[in-house]
Amino acid sequence: MTTKRGAKATIRDVAAAAEVSVAAVSAALNGKGSLKAETRERIQREAERLGYRPSRVAQAFREGRIGAIALVLPLMDSVDEQQRLIGLDYYMAIAAGSASAAFAAGYSLTLTPPLSSREQWRMVRADGVVLCDPVADDERLTVLDEIGVPVVTIDRDPTREPMPPYAAGDNYANMRLLLDHLDDEGARRIALLSADSSWAWTQDGDRAYAEWCAEHGHEPLRVPVPLGKGDNDALEATVELLQRAAPPDAVIASAEQYTAGVVNACRKLGRRIPDDVMVAVGVDSRSALQNDPPLTAIDLHPHQQGEAAVRLLLDRLAHDAARPDPVIVPSTLHRRASTHRG
Amino acid sequence: MTTKRGAKATIRDVAAAAEVSVAAVSAALNGKGSLKAETRERIQREAERLGYRPSRVAQAFREGRIGAIALVLPLMDSVDEQQRLIGLDYYMAIAAGSASAAFAAGYSLTLTPPLSSREQWRMVRADGVVLCDPVADDERLTVLDEIGVPVVTIDRDPTREPMPPYAAGDNYANMRLLLDHLDDEGARRIALLSADSSWAWTQDGDRAYAEWCAEHGHEPLRVPVPLGKGDNDALEATVELLQRAAPPDAVIASAEQYTAGVVNACRKLGRRIPDDVMVAVGVDSRSALQNDPPLTAIDLHPHQQGEAAVRLLLDRLAHDAARPDPVIVPSTLHRRASTHRG
DNA sequence: CTGAAAGCGCTTACAG
DNA sequence: CTGAAAGCGCTTACAG
After folding, report:
1. pLDDT digits (tens, 9 = 90+) for A219-255
2. Do B164 and B311 belong together in one domain?
């Protein structure tokens, strides 16, 4: 009645060893049913002796759920080594928040690497997916829909109908918050580095900027900067801006990726922050906080966004009901030295 | 014979609809067996019509494996919001590398949030665990061993016997590489910021530093700096170092976390890098690369370490055989402007 | 208080 | 070429 070496003991092995039924073993180990204390202890002893561990797959199978949620981050989509180094604080915090919310509900969080083919997506073992920063007509959402996997996005889908549930910051309001703050601090020519992308947060920010400028009679100074390709683009764009005949007296870096480029451009040209030019960032990060001087930035509370997205997803899984409302996570403006002239 | 609304179609529903056996459905959908083309097509049509998706859990159950590997990162162990912001490039790259190696082998990668109790660890649904930076007598390894989950570590376990298989950089050699490089560039008093921890990489680095100093007749200038508690500690330690009567002419920041602190300390005291003091970092990051001037750093190729660790784990899962040898991933010294006086 | 059985959804031999 | 059955390891009603 001993198990074979190497083969893992099953509930049957324990039942045989303790000379009871498998049901009794199950009850004893899960503290259910009503077993005589003596029997329960004997079963536990035998289980211990055989090194029995209930099979997690079998349990999952019985529960009818995988017990995992997949998280898809844009940064995992890059293939070359250089790019992979780019671990943005924002996404890391989303991952941490998602993981803890998932785990609190008895789910684990799965990181999904770059997937191209439909085949690969079918391999994903998860009860649902949290997808960050969908683009317009995002193919991945189409595939997931075909496969029948529920999806929640972080940042809303710009085009899809019906729009999947989502969690997001209030990107429109945040941009206006930055602009008002810079205005209060005396900035009169505020430039914006922003990506030409179909992401909702970019478009919301651009719209807020355009409207704010129109309302305040300011000339818009928006410079498109590609995202992702390293940070030279942001540096060059900022250098170009600052060397214009009428340079800006404040620069907003809308993306975390631009942070170093903007700062280095100022340093390169000998422009002091904030005296010659104020700098503010649309997404807070360690770089912003640790910069000398520390940079004013919007904290999008990505940890909370991750938590919120996972909870939305779990609701969908549980109730299979009506599409829930989006969750807008309030953001915080951290006023730091980069936008305040002593 | 139609499925209930809401309830997902099972293989039985498809079999009934197509008027064949479940075995035929399985064969048709997996392209196995020898079905008449006409039958196969009819089955596929019905499956399509019913929106049938094979249950991933059931498949997993049959395969006898969960199909997931858990990754445990030290940074996920912090609870307060402030700490969570700390997404180190090093760990992010490990996660990306692990995920792609896992996925290539048909496994997914699960992120495990901070777990304290044995109970919580039992909830982890994974066929194996990759644990980063084990400390001496790491409780987590003890628990995982009890639960019977195979483990591979990144960076070796400092004390455990038998030592779990691991992937790591050559931390001893790397420290000497940095020291030799600084020596070549003319540094004569090289200080080291290093943590008082039981981590193997810290201890290896400290040992290399002590031996190198002894061999070269240099006075050791090692300053212990706590890890994790934000970056003020590194800044203060560096300020203190640079204000000594005999200040160092080079500083090695052994951890990625020290990067900003060291740079800001130099800036605060008006010491120019590299002219007044050279700076080198033991772990490469975006901060090091984007600093002005860019900082010389050791690239530990964390992406490859992640891949290697996952492959070690998969080997163990597959063969259940002898303990494999550790994998030492070669590191690269990136010589940058911070250690070269024009 | 305990046992025997059914069943979760799939795939893989094995019969016909 | 196709069907009926066994079985992966567990838990949950249901009998005794």
Report:
1. 999 999 987 655 688 999 999 999 999 999 999 999 9
2. yes
- Is A81 an 8 Å CB contact of chain B? yes
- A51, closest residue in chain B (CA to CA): B148
Site of tokens 């600093």 = B291
Integer Cα distance of A147 and A121 in angstroms: 8
> How far apart, in whole angstroms, are the C-alpha atoms of residue B271 and residue B263?
9
- Gap from B225 CA to C15 C1', Å: 73
Q: Are A264 and A287 in contact (CB under 8 A)?
A: no
| Residue among B214, B215, B181 at smallest CA distance from B298 | B181
- How far apart CA A116 and CA B48 sit, in angstroms, is 22
Residues 42-81 of B with CB under 7 A from strand D: 61-62, 64
Beta bridge partners of B221: B191
Q: Which residues contact B206 (CB under 8 A, 6 or more apart)?
A: B192, B194, B222
Q: Which residues contact B38 (CB under 8 A, 6 or more apart)?
A: none
Tell me which residue of B193, B257, B253 sits closest to B228, measured CA to CA: B257
- Residue A65 and residue B102: Cα distance in Å, rounded? 21
Asked if the Cβ of residue B20 lies within 7 A of any atom of strand D, the reply is yes
Distance B232 CA to D6 C1' (A): 65
Instruction: Give the whole-angstrom CA distance, residue A78 versus residue A93.
Output: 19
Q: Tell me what pLDDT residue B74 has.
A: 81
Polymer length of chain A: 342
SS3 of B158-189: the string is CCCCCCCCEEEECHHHHHHHHHHHHHHCCCCC
- Whether B184 and B217 map to the same domain: the answer is yes
Do A289 and A307 fall into the same domain?
Answer: no
Query: A195 lies in which domain range?
Result: 171-300+333-339
Q: Which nucleotide is nearest to B35 (CA to C1')?
A: D1
A120 in a domain, yes or no? Answer: yes
Q: What is the pLDDT along chain B (342 residues), one digit of tens a residue?
A: 333 344 678 898 898 888 888 889 998 888 877 778 888 889 989 888 888 888 888 988 888 888 889 999 886 555 444 444 345 788 888 988 998 899 888 888 888 876 667 777 777 778 899 999 998 888 889 888 877 788 999 999 988 888 899 999 999 999 999 999 999 999 999 999 999 888 999 999 999 999 999 999 999 999 999 876 556 889 999 999 999 999 999 999 999 889 999 999 999 999 999 999 999 999 998 889 889 899 999 999 999 999 999 999 998 887 766 678 899 999 999 999 999 987
Angle at B54 between CA B50 and CA B58, to 5 degrees: 140
Is there a single domain that holds both residue A50 and residue A120?
no
Q: Report whether A238 contacts A262 (CB < 8 A).
A: yes
